[in-house]
Amino acid sequence: MVPLQCVFPGFAGPTPLSLIDGKNMRSFKHVSPRGQRGFTLVEISLVLVVIGLILGAVSIGKDIQRNAEYTKIKQKFVDQWASAYNGHYLRTGAVVGDSQIQPRLMVNGNAYAVVADLVSGQDMTSVTPPKAICQGGTAPGMSRDAELILHREMDRHGIRMPPGRAEGFEDRYAYLDTNGNPQELQVCFQWNNPGNPASSGNVMVISGLTPDLARALDQMIDGKADSREGLFRKYDIANDSDGEPGVEWAANNTQAYGSTTGTAIDTDQNLDEDQVITVVATYKMNQ
Questions:
Q1: 89-101, pLDDT tens digit by residue?
Q2: CA contacts within 13 A on the Cβ side of 78
Q3: In whole angstroms, what is the distance from residue 207 CA to residue 121 CA?
Q4: Which of 50, 171, 174, 286 has a CB 3.0–4.6 Å from the CB of 187, allowing a cystine?
Q5: Containing structural domain, residue 154
């Protein structure tokens, strides 16, 4: 086998590594073919591109996280409450609060007051709707029947409810708005007269929705973010008399409180510390 050789300073020719003593080995240094140099423009450009991608990924990640939360709200809360409502109908043959013996096919039909022997099949547009059924408190623009609590109605028929916030608060769901402030959804059920812009018949009323969340739910439910048309609508939207297409969810994305009244008012500001305004929507039920 041929011994490994190298060029060593002070020797005329190649010297076998076996003949190099320790002293000369310590003085042996690798000589770089090129001198030390700085970064090129290409390298700096690549670093800037990587930094931009990282910042873009962080921004996109926030949107992905928000969309995932909206999808979770629909699947784990709104859809499960719709399933609970349908489960009540399948179990009892009547909707929530209706009579199982003489059903009127309206939420809280037991409390329906018959006026002038009005029966189904006649004009129902002027009927005074029975009160809504909620868990506790009152949703905006609604009167709640204190005797018919949503939890009690579902529980006494063995209907599984969504977990919600906690036991006894199954109708509530807490989430963060786009400014990072806490918001709370609330679900109620009620019957609306024919011709009601917020869907006629039995509906789920969802309060505490930010405009961003309302648009997302409307897109997932109806395939179009239209606050006037479809199964999912804005609660106080006006009917259109000119035959024009629907309307966007035009609510402001911020909300402030009056300095003297303490009530919520719309603003044209968009501050991170502001509370985002909330809207109320209705979701038409199958039964």
A1: 999 999 998 988 8
A2: 29
A3: 32
A4: 171
A5: 74-284
Distance between CA atoms of residues 196 and 131, nearest Å: 15
Task: Give the residues across from 183 on adjacent strands.
Answer: 175
In a domain, 79, yes or no: yes
Angle CA(211)–CA(203)–CA(165) in degrees, nearest 5?
Answer: 60
- Look at residue 39 and tell me if it is in a domain: no
Q: Which token pair is 132?
A: 């809504």
Q: Is residue 21 part of a domain?
A: no
- For 78, the token pair is 């709104």
Q: Is 13 helix (H, G, I), strand (E, B) or coil?
A: coil
What would the 3-class secondary structure string for 189-228 be?
Answer: EEEECCCCCCCCEEEEEEEEECHHHHHHHHHHHHCCCCCC
In three-state secondary structure terms, 26 is helix
Say if CB 179 and CB 273 are below 8 A apart: yes
**DSSP single-letter state for residue 130:** P
The total number of structural domains that make up the chain: 1
Structural domain includes residue 140 = yes
Distance between CA 134 and CA 205 in Å, rounded? Answer: 9
pTM of the model: 0.73
Highest mean pLDDT among 35-44, 127-136, 146-155: 127-136
- The conformational region for residue 225 under phi > 0 = left, psi -120 to 50 = alpha, else beta, is beta
pLDDT of residue 138: 54
